[in-house]
Amino acid sequence: MTTVARDPVTAADPTPPAAKPAAGPSRHRFRAVAGFAFGAALLFAVAPLLLSDFRLSLLAKYLCVAMVAIGIGLAWGRGGMLALGQGVFFGLGGYAMAMHLKLADAGPGNMPDFMLLYGQLDELPLWWRPFASPWFALPATVLLPMAVAFVLGSLVFRRRVRGAYFAILSQALAAAMVILLIGQQGTTGGTNGLTDIQGFFGYDLDDPVNQRMVYFIIAGTLLALLALTRHLMQSRYGELLVAVRDGEERVRFLGYDPATVKLVAYVVAAGMAGLAGALFVPAVGIISPAMIGIVPSIEFVIGVAIGGRATLLGPVLGAVAVAWARTALSERFPGTWTYLQGLLFVVVVAFLPGGLASLVGLLRRGDGERRPGWLRRSRRTEAEAS
Amino acid sequence: MTLFRGRRILAGAMTLVAAAALAACGSKTTDQNTSAGVTADVSGDTVKVGLLNSLSGTMAISEVTVRDSIMLAIEEINAAGGVLGKKIQPVGEDGASDWPTFAEKAEKLIREDRVAAVFGCWTSASRKAVKPVFEKNKALLFYPVQYEGLEQSPYIFYTGATTNQQIVPGLDYLKAQGAKSLYLVGSDYVFPRTANKIIKAYAEANGMKVLGEDYAPLGSTEFGTITNKVKSSGADAVFNTLNGDSNVAFFKEYKSAGLTATSMPVVSVSIAEEEVKSIGTQYLEGQLTAWNYYQTTPGAANEKFVAAYKAKYGADKPTSDPMEAAYVSVYLWKAMVEKAGAFDVEKVRQASDGITFEAPEGLVTVDGATQHIAKTARVGKVGADGLITEVWNSGAPITPDPYLKSYPWAGGLS
User: Are residues B158 and B187 located together in one domain of the fold?
Assistant: First the structure.
């Protein structure tokens, strides 16, 4: 760990600062680049070659969940904010995208099919109209969740709401959003959500080639988000965030405002969840309240916990592993898979409290410095885990 | 240092995204032939069919009974020699009461298992989620539950009632009984909201007053306020579209508020024999339900169905309308395949019109134009023994009209 109060000038300095650990940054950089290259090869070459169209589209869905997980890893693992309501941001992003695609499917001047069925509206509601333009809808998938997170976060963190109270508040928000969506059936599709999405910016989603393209976009976005998060975690801000998690009062006395530090992580996590929701829509073809309420919000967090919340890759691996296990188990044992899944959660939490990512650490115990950078966790979590 | 490194990685990743997007370079064809659909695998001496029901989650309690009766039908058909000489091999999947999961599993059944047809789904939301999957792959779904109408997919056969075979006859019955005012209570989702829209249009056209309309979230057990509002409204009858557990709480509250089946009858459209058992007969005795089938429906076909079901799953297991519709759907599919002489989806669809089957509920006929089936509507009363006995029926099967086009009062609905 580098010092918290590092001078910004040295932070931007291309030469390694003297305070860096002996392992040397060039080695870390090499590992990071090698790791990303390996991930890219896996996602862009191996997976499309080995998997059928159907399995690849499932992987696309898992990767969307993994994007939410990266954000939760940042907010919870690094920032100590148990974000139990990420479904809200996932939903905002998903609905923004789905609204645009529905309007594009319907064609200019027409209304989406479900509105005619359930809404009996004469014209498109005012708040739907801007979504007809991709120049509004696309940025909205990320900026809308971020704006909501900003408003909520500013209110909550300034008042020093944390721990269980913050988690409960997040859950309440998820529940409220679901009730709102279901109640406005005529304009939101109610419990059905927005379904039957045919096209994606002119590309026919029924075509397997285009489904593959959606997968590539998702895989690329995931890698980009990982790079962004790695950058955040290793920056001065990342150190501050961990410091706030571990000793908020101390950071306050050092002259920083913990509320702002937390707010940034929360807003970034919300943006990632929104982006994940937006990409989920073309990959799966549906967004509904069932995917943004309390239960899915908890499921997002479970994946992160299983994978290892404080690491960079842990949440991604955990989210993909949980989603994959869900599919595999339920296909193999349709009647009893829920018990098996529950058992898996219990075993992981009981024997690997640091998540799957701590497995590597366990195997290399006593040789902590030689662990790859992306699996290194802060000392505090290490202590909690053992 | 960190900033620079991060930037380089970021730049690398971005280039990767751009490269991938270019490499993938989706085909922008609007030619529908590109998605020709998946043909079912019928090369062996068995034919696979998919069973897509929720075996876990909130809907499991209802959907498992549907799965059981589909399995019963498959066993009976296999024992009698199968379909076109092939034994049916069921492939079960769990929809897990989660709509995207339904879509995922439907796709798996069609593309990986290459089934000839899929039987299942219960909630409208799950049907709406799988509908594009079936249409895209040109595969068949048999949907066995009464629903809110306003839908007609070329790749779905609806073997449950649409609104003009259940809700409208239920209202006709209330009108004939002299009800002048109604109170609407429902769960907060698509079916109750759409059903209530239809009920309000009917009421307006028939001189009935709707005195109130209340929705409770799915799974809600808090009915004190709603019951008080119902009571003070003084309505002649209550039309109940609540689903699942909420009914237990609602009817307990209803009884404790001093309301009875004689003072203010409740007509329910989601309470069948299975639910009567879980709610408790003491709360429901004398209340009305609207369906197309009851365990007590007379006829040899039903006696055989009930006996076979109890023999397989236990003497205490009741049979209900969705179970019967699911059982019938397998036999209808068999009849369509045999008439078509092939498992090919388009041929099966073309063969469907006019197929009849002597179902436990009586004679049913497939209407090829809407892919719904003509069914007899029945209003029943819950008895002290927990069974429902018919007090009225429509006399003859009612032709399905999912968009209510033949009802002038429903003009503005769709």
Answer: no
Are B185 and B99 contained in the same domain?
no
DSSP string, A49-109: HHS-HHHHHHHHHHHHHHHHHHHHIIIIIIT----TTHHHHHHHHHHHHHHHHHHHHH-TT
A224 touches chain B (CB under 8 A): yes
Distance from the B122 Cα atom to the nearest Cα atom in chain A, whole angstroms: 13
| Tens-place pLDDT, residues B47-78 | 999 999 999 887 888 899 999 999 999 999 99
pLDDT per residue over A124-177, tens digit each?
Answer: 889 999 999 999 999 999 999 999 999 999 999 988 887 889 999 999 999 999
Q: Is residue B152 part of a domain?
A: yes
Residues of A in contact with B9 (CB under 8 A): 32-33, 36, 227, 230-231
The CATH number of residue B180's host domain is 3.40.50.2300
The mean per-residue pLDDT over the stretch A363-373 comes to: 53
pLDDT, mean of residues B360-366 = 96
ipTM of the complex: 0.80
Q: Are residues B51 and B135 in the same domain?
A: yes
B169 and B210 together in one domain? yes
Domain count, chain B: 2
Q: Say if A12 is an interface residue toward chain B (CB within 8 Å).
A: yes
Test mutation, A36, A181, A206, A297, chain B, max B CBs within 10 A:
A206
Instruction: Select the more confidently predicted residue: A191 or A72.
Output: A72
Using left for φ > 0, alpha for ψ between -120 and 50, and beta otherwise, residue B260 falls in beta
Q: What digits encode the pLDDT tens for the residues A6-49?
A: 444 333 444 444 444 445 567 778 888 898 999 999 999 999 99
Residues of A (192-211) whose Cβ lies below 8 Å from B: 192-193, 195-198, 202-204, 206-210
Residue A206 has pLDDT above 60, yes or no: yes
Searching chain B, which residue's CA lies closest to the CA of residue A52? B112
Domain range for A214 = 31-293
Considering the domain architecture, whether residues B87 and B123 belong to the same structural domain is answered as yes
CA distances from residue B198 to A272, B173, B202, B376, B378 in whole angstroms, order as listed:
42, 16, 6, 20, 19
Cβ distance B3 to A15 less than 8 Å, yes or no, reads no
Alpha helices (runs of H) in A288-313, residue ranges in sequence order: 294-307
In percent, the amount of chain B with pLDDT more than 70 equals 91
Same domain, B99 and B190: no
Closest partner residue to A183 (CB to CB) among B17, B103, B188 is: B188
| Chosen from B38, B99, B218 to mutate, greatest number of chain A CBs within 10 A | B99
Q: Considering only alpha carbons, which residue of chain A is nearest residue B55?
A: A335
Q: Does residue A69 fall inside a structural domain?
A: yes
CA distance A160 to chain B (A): 30
Give the range of the structural domain holding residue B385, as residue numbers without chain letter: 164-296+378-410
Question: What is the pTM (predicted TM-score) of this model?
Answer: 0.85
pLDDT bin (cut points 50, 70, 90) of residue A369 is: very low
**Domains of chain A: total:** 1
The answer to whether the Cβ–Cβ distance between B99 and A120 falls below 8 Å is no
Q: Say if B84 falls within a structural domain.
A: yes
User: Which among A54, A182, A221 has CB closest to B17?
Assistant: A221
Q: What is the pLDDT of residue A8?
A: 41
Task: Say whether B414 and A236 touch across the interface (CB within 8 A).
Answer: no
Report the DSSP pairing between strands B46-53 and A203-204. unpaired
